[in-house]
Automatic annotation (TrEMBL):
Pfam families: Nucleotid_trans (PF03407). The keyword Transport does not apply. The chain crosses the membrane at residues 7-29. The keyword Membrane applies. Coiled coil: none annotated. Keywords: Membrane, Transmembrane, Transmembrane helix. It comes from Oldenlandia corymbosa var. corymbosa. Residues 107-309 form the Nucleotide-diphospho-sugar transferase domain. This is OLC1v1000258C2.
Length: 349
């Protein structure tokens, strides 16, 4: 019996020792394990490793078409929540365009909504869209950023950095501001120019020449194909942010195109979009029967944009109504946006 008891004692000691070693090993190993796991969506950073478990890669793959094309928009709390407790929100209007537009509903399957704060991300998830939470450390992008304020400029550069990351992953995209209503599917129009493989960009005021680098560009809507030339363009563009104080990212790109000849230097095949098809408040489309998008550009605040884009949707529904007896073929005046330019910033937020 003594011999058996000793054997049990030795076995128990060995088991305890093995258990202790396992605990110590697990304690030392856990940090390494955590470092390779994909981060929670609320912890994603602007610059991420392109690993197999990369959350951005997963959502891009889900949203993209077979040829790796995705529609991207960026929102924050100010765009997804009611302005002064009044509905609709800017995001409501943006999505409504896809509902009432011609052959646009299916495009929502390919829309990636990039959220700059948790509220916007939660709202996106609630709508069951393709959502990605982007965090730029040290900057709060929750509230409305008025045009050309310091925070507005920072948010535009954060957006540019994100789009550069998308291109580097091999995804082409249409970027669209949320203050744009899609009334028709833009892809048939964009694909009409098969020789333009690199970039097509909207304009505030089209000068009549689609290849002219003197067009006044607008980075609120543009189509970019992922390749070495466009990646180099975005790297050059983003690299200018530290030496372009006080300039928004659109103005920096305009300078590269109009004054430094970056299009020719990189051999880019670029086209600038006319305002009849890709219109905005800066220059309304006179062709209601062909208009593809309407952009609330040349407008200063979210409240004004919401008011005037609501009128655009109403005009669209009226003009499309087969029972409409009105002879009107033009858009309503953008009165709220015009008034916003006369108000002090304190009255715009």
């Amino acid at each position: 019996m003594d011999s058996i008891a000793k054997n049990y004692f030795v076995i128990n000691v060995l088991l305890f020792f093995l258990f202790l070693v396992a605990i110590i090993s697990l304690y030392n190993w856990t940090p390494g394990l955590v470092s390779i796991l994909p981060l929670n969506s609320t912890l994603m950073r602007t610059h991420t490793d392109h690993g197999l478990n990369d959350e951005l890669e997963e959502v891009l793959s889900k949203a993209s078409t077979e040829d790796k094309m995705v529609i991207i928009t960026v929102v924050n709390k100010a765009y997804v929540e009611p302005h002064h407790d009044q509905y609709p929100t800017m995001f409501d209007i943006f999505l409504e365009g896809f509902w009432v537009g011609e052959r646009t509903q299916f495009l929502l399957d390919h829309l990636l909504v990039v959220s700059m704060d948790q509220t916007a991300y939660n709202r996106c998830l609630f709508r069951r869209l393709n959502c990605y939470r982007l965090i730029t450390e040290g900057v709060d992008f929750t509230e409305e950023k008025l045009y050309m304020t310091a925070d507005f400029i920072k948010m535009m550069w954060a957006r540019t950095a994100f789009l550069l990351d998308v291109l580097k992953r091999g995804y082409s995209f249409i970027f669209t501001d949320t203050d744009i209503i899609w009334l028709r599917d833009p892809f048939p129009r964009l694909k009409m120019y098969k020789e333009i493989d690199d970039m097509q960009m909207s304009t505030d005021r089209f000068n009549g020449y689609p290849s002219s680098t003197q067009n006044s560009i607008n980075t609120g809507f543009y189509h970019v194909r992922s390749n070495n030339k466009t990646i180099t363009l975005f790297e050059t563009w983003y690299g200018r942010r530290t030496s372009s104080a006080g300039m928004k990212e659109q103005d920096v790109l305009a300078k590269l195109i109009t004054k430094e000849g970056v299009i020719d230097k990189l051999g880019l095949r670029a086209r600038f979009l006319d305002n009849d098809h890709f219109s905005g408040f800066c220059s309304d489309s006179k062709e209601v029967n062909v208009v593809v998008t309407v952009h609330a550009n040349c407008c200063r605040s979210i409240g004004a944009k919401v008011a005037d884009l609501t009128r655009v949707l109403k005009d669209w529904k009226t003009l499309r109504d087969p029972n409409n007896t009105s002879n009107a073929t033009t858009w309503s005046k953008h009165e709220a946006c015009g008034k916003a330019w006369t108000l002090p910033p304190s009255l715009l937020t």
